[in-house]
Amino acid sequence: MFRNKSIEEFIEVLSSKEPVPGGGGASALAGTMGTALARMVGNLTLGKKKYIDVQEDISVLQQKTLILTGELMDLIDKDAEVFLPLSKAYSLPGATLEEREYKDRVMEEALNIACSVPVMIMEKSYQMLLLLGEYADKGLKIAISDVAVSSVMLRAAISGASVNVYINTKIMKDRNKAEGLNSHCDDLMQKGMDLADKIFERIEKKLR
Q: Is the dihedral of CA 141, 143, 149, 151 positive or negative?
């Protein structure tokens, strides 16, 4: 399980010739760091007398963010799990018509499964972005820069995961399924990028 490795161990295997972890796992890690930074700001805010009016709101945010942290961390390993069958499918023989037909069926199923995790990474990261604006508004002011960094990490998670979908949908035989996935990702990309940029720019403007 990659989630249990040290940072140094994870980076070492990420940079190796091993097929996993790859861009999907790295995207999930970026999303996890985004949620963790938001939780840090929340923890710094809780218990502060100056922020007594927002304690309940921050507590609710923290509970939601903790769930997203766990879900995104799980997706680091899940991405590796769903990629391995696809990696094996690519190496199936295709010399005869029967072999090619079998390979096509296995590939199609593996491509669908491989798309599922990066889509979830995008969805969970966008859900976190929807909470992030409230951290920016109610969180400890001297930690607001960390909310901005969180938005950058979540933006990276969404954009990084998207290309891990597109590379698979590009070769799907079922074009209706592929276009449906692409459309969903396009929507998450547009909404996620816009929201992340707005949060970052709003904070940057306050700091400069």
A: negative
d(CA 96, CA 202): 59
pLDDT of the residue at 18: 86
- DSSP string computed for 104-149: HHHHHHHHHHHHHHHHHHHHHHHHHHHHHHHHHHHS-GGGHHHHHH
Q: Report pLDDT digits (tens) over 14-28.
A: 999 988 889 999 999
Beta strands in the chain (DSSP E): none
Instruction: Give percent of the chain above pLDDT 90.
Output: 85
CA-nearest of 21, 156, 38 to 75 is 21
What is the DSSP-derived secondary structure letter of residue 92? S
pTM: 0.94
Taking CA 164 as the corner, what is the angle to CA 203 and CA 63, rounded to the nearest 5 degrees?
45
CA separation, residue 82 to residues 188, 195, 198 (Å): 21, 29, 33
DSSP H or E stretch at residue 4 = none
- Asked if residues 178 and 108 have their Cβ atoms less than 8 Å apart, the reply is no
